[in-house]
Write a structure and sequence with these properties.
Helices cover 35% and strands 12% of the residues. By secondary structure, it is an alpha+beta fold. Strands 1-2 form a two-stranded antiparallel sheet.
């Protein structure tokens, strides 16, 4: 993925996933989790 196309949410996801590769991450976006 090009850094120019990475959204702030996706950037945060990639950072947290790199720190905890075995975890399942849920991000709340409004009323939904992604």
């Amino acid at each position: 993925m090009s850094d120019a196309k990475v959204t702030p949410m996706m950037q945060r996801y990639l950072e947290v996933k790199a720190e905890t590769p075995g975890a399942i991450l849920l991000f709340r976006m409004g009323d939904f989790y992604e």
